[in-house]
Amino acid sequence: MSSAAAKKARPKYLSLTALLFEIRLPLPGWVSILHRVSGLLLFFPLTAWLLYLLDASLASEQGFQHVRDTYLKLPVAKLGLLVFVWAFSHHFCAGIRFLFLDIDRGVELKAARASSVAVLVVSLAITAFVAMRLW
Amino acid sequence: MNRVVTGAHYGLGDWLAQRVTGLVMAIYSVILLAYFVSQPAVTYPSWKALFEQGWMRVATLLFAVSLAWHAWVGMRDILMDYIKPTGLRLSLEIFTLVTLAVYLGWTVQVLWR
């Protein structure tokens, strides 16, 4: 057996360009890659930003007022808050989903597809809800 | 087995730690969310009182330690998958570790000042 297909070099890992432009990712795949993207954003810079806000809001009464009534009213801060809400909601929901997959719950194609839709929809719905409250 | 400096520990420990720390952070988040929902408008005295309670300080520190451990495993997974040159990967791993250490120190400073 020495067909042309057998000789073709096999990819060692999926490159980012392949992931973005060559492969149509199924929904559970989107949940997975967005779990990584949201995790990265939460690690940096969102945790640093939230720690800054916690620090300022606990330091003094004036610091608290400034954060609540001035700083978090800035459009750019609202946008940051919205990015955090999406990243957190997605990471939270997808994380719970992965915990269930780890104990072999919902691993069949139909259930896995349904739960990935639920993760994407719920996190976007939470983000939309917070957006309405902010503006 | 071919062990590399920028690799993982080739065991179940990190995998399990990431799940346990994730669960700890999820529980803490629900508690904090319950606090926000229970308050019509958060005021400074109530906010300050929350973080002055002993259990809340310990819980927040537990959250911060969980975050550091969880994010270290996650970031290392991401770097091992997408960053191939050893020097760059090592640099980014060091950046991750230093950043997480700063977060931890900062959290302690905010909680006990």
Which quaternary structure do these chains form? Answer: heterodimer
The CATH C-level class name of chain B: Mainly Alpha
Strand content of chain A: under 5%
Helix and strand composition category of chain B: mainly alpha
Mean pLDDT of chain B, to the nearest integer, reads 94
Largest contact between chains:
A-B, 25 and 24 residues
Cα distance, first to last residue of chain A?
Answer: 65 Å
According to CATH, the homologous superfamily of chain A is Fumarate reductase/succinate dehydrogenase, transmembrane subunit
Which parts of chain B are unreliable, with pLDDT below 50 for 5 consecutive residues or more?
none
What general outline of chain A do the C-alpha atoms trace? elongated
| Number of E-state strands of chain B | 0
| CATH architectural label of chain B | Up-down Bundle
Summed over residues and divided by their number, the pLDDT of chain A gives a mean of 92
Strand fraction of chain B: under 5%
Main sheet attributes: strand count, strand direction, barrel closure of chain B? none
Order of helices and strands of chain A: HHHHHH
Provide keyphrases for this structure:
heterodimer; A: mainly alpha; 3 helical TM bundles of succinate and fumarate reductases; 6 helices; B: 113 residues; mainly alpha; elongated
Describe the model.
The complex is a heterodimer of chains A (135) and B (113). Chain A is built from six helices and no strands. Chain A has 135 residues and is an all-alpha fold. The longest helix of chain A has 33 residues. The N and C termini of chain A lie far apart (65 Å). Chain B is elongated. The model of chain B has no long low-confidence stretch (mean pLDDT 94). Chains A and B meet through helix 3, helix 4 and helix 5 of A and helix 1, helix 2, helix 3 and helix 4 of B.
